[in-house]
Amino acid sequence: MDDLVTERLVLHPLTVLEAERVAAGEPAEGDRWAPGYPADGDMTGARRFLTTCAITGDPGPFGAYEIRRRADGHAIGGLGFHGVPDEDLAVTIGYGLIPSVHGQGYASEALRALLRYARSGGVSRVQGDADHDNIASQRVMTAVGMRLVAQDEALRYYRIDWPVDEAAADTLRSWTDGRRAG
Q1: Taking the model in full, what pTM does it have?
Q2: Who is most buried in 51, 98, 148, 157, counting CB within 10 A?
Q3: Sorting pLDDT into bands at 50, 70 and 90, what band is 173?
């Protein structure tokens, strides 16, 4: 799969080998990691991706992405899907950035690109959540068009829904049905 490119970022889909390095926090020669990368959330996301790959195979475009700055190529965070779309063509996302780049709009830029990609691929709904005290993440989800739909004692739940593009949805259903059958 190709990188997703925005004005200031490259969203690079992780390979299994790259995810293993992120999960271990051990860069290989040539990896360009900004100081503080990978953070705990990046390592957790890489482990989730590796577990998915081990159990059901590579989730393709519905895996983990490394967020890289275009200006210098440094990895500054991660985002991705928690798995392939479900029967309703819904997915859950997660994301995070190293503290030194907070407040620069990178999270919103990256999440917008991932949402555009999901929508163009036939996804009907994207869900995410944030801790009550994670106001920055709540603002990011709101800024990209997600809306608060529920909360409990620990989390606030956000989502965005789109009308189904039947042609894209049929292609996506065929792909996900094939993965479930295989």
Answers
A1: 0.92
A2: 98
A3: confident
CA distance 15 to 57: 12
Cis preceding-peptide flag for 85 (omega within 30 of 0): no
Residue type (1 letter), 152: D
The single-letter code of the amino acid at 39 is: A
Residue 105 backbone phi and psi in degrees, to 5: 85, 5
Dist. CA 60–CA 44, nearest whole Å: 18
Q: Is the pLDDT of residue 126 over 80?
A: yes
Determine the Cα–Cα distance for residues 46 and 13; give it in Å rounded to an integer.
11
Contact 172, 140 (CB under 8 A): no
Residue of 53, 41, 44 whose CA lies nearest to 15: 53
DSSP per position, 94-118: EEEE-GGGTTSSHHHHHHHHHHHHH
d(CA 136, CA 96): 11
Does residue 180 surpass a pLDDT of 70? no
Going from the C-alpha of 9 to that of each of 83, 149, 162, 182, the distances in angstroms are 23, 29, 25, 35
